[in-house]
């Protein structure tokens, strides 16, 4: 497949700036989900002794809000645009984190965690969608994965804040500092354009062309505009969410969403300090181990961004998931051989296993899932379909998070981590059979495969690119054809 023109340095610089500003939503996603891991150690100073269920509640109510926010964000983004949706998301972030910081009672804190979750869920859907619609195919993997890098960076920042404030035990400031990037997201987005594809598909072609001129070379623009029009007006080929030709990719997206969570990543993000502290490490040591784990998460995400458009999505996904199996087995064995009170070599073994697991997730299932759901769905249903997958992700996250400490009490550390290792192995088997390779295909070419019912199988074969090129009507060199459901009337 021939490469599309890559535009000038100015085009790439504009794309980097827009992606970086929008990815502040991902940083807030990471910070607000990760900061609770340290805050849990100190909430009892303000609210008295908290039970395991209380800790699960204050952690998991964010996830209920996130599921709700993800479900509504797709429709809102298609109705009013990507940019206004991100602005609203930033305002909800500000309200939620300030409310949590000044919470007068535990129940109020729990409510504010739900409000923060609304913004987190919206950001988790709209940020990769918006960046994907700005990016040409050659760079789409890297730029969409800016969001995953921002998420992992937010988690690392939250760990550093937790560690830095551990001596003062100031959990209120831990939550409240998130207002700073939320304000920056709002102000930065005011100076960003609307998605050019959303503008074109809603009949505002001149505005869309003006925006594309900031991010594309002249020879790319006509082909891209034609591609958006072709798909938007082709009503007979516009699949409904219930259409059998779309069912395979809906199942794929939802399954990957669930696997990303039931394999245990957010139990590590939310509960690693609690787990290590309960296993014998001090508060400071537990939070420091968390910082190291966050650093590995960021470092391996950077490696993934570099590799996604070189090695492809599928190799990273399979290799990373295999590493997750190994990491969980190491953690489980450390509890099996070291007992419930880890110390010395067994504590180091547990931390090493967590690092292997987190690094493997960061290079595979972490970024690849979010990239794939921004790629595999047809234009007419991309917003709602991404919302469904994101909703499934947050719902699975909630189920795991609300039950983890209770499950830990019931079957112990070794039982929980052996379970996560098994589920990771099941996920690996599914991915080997069902996950496609989308590297170097434009979104229009991927849509052709979807419409011919090949997305779950043949798209991942060696002939996918050839098939796409022979069947699509998009001109050679077409840039990324993302789109909107706003004008088709088929998004439900």
Describe the overall structure.
This protein is 77% helix and 0% strand. By secondary structure, it is mainly alpha-helical. The protein has one domain: MFS general substrate transporter like domains (Growth Hormone, Chain: A), CATH 1.20.1250.20. It starts with 8 loop residues before the first helix and ends in a 21-residue tail after the last helix. The model is unreliable at 1-6 and 453-492 (pLDDT under 50).
Structural class: mainly alpha
The CATH topology is Growth Hormone, Chain: A
Please tally the β strands and state the result: 0
Strand content: under 5%
Average pLDDT confidence is: 80
| Helix segment tally | 23
Number of domains: 1
List keywords for this structure.
disordered N terminus; disordered C terminus; 492 residues; mainly alpha; 23 helices
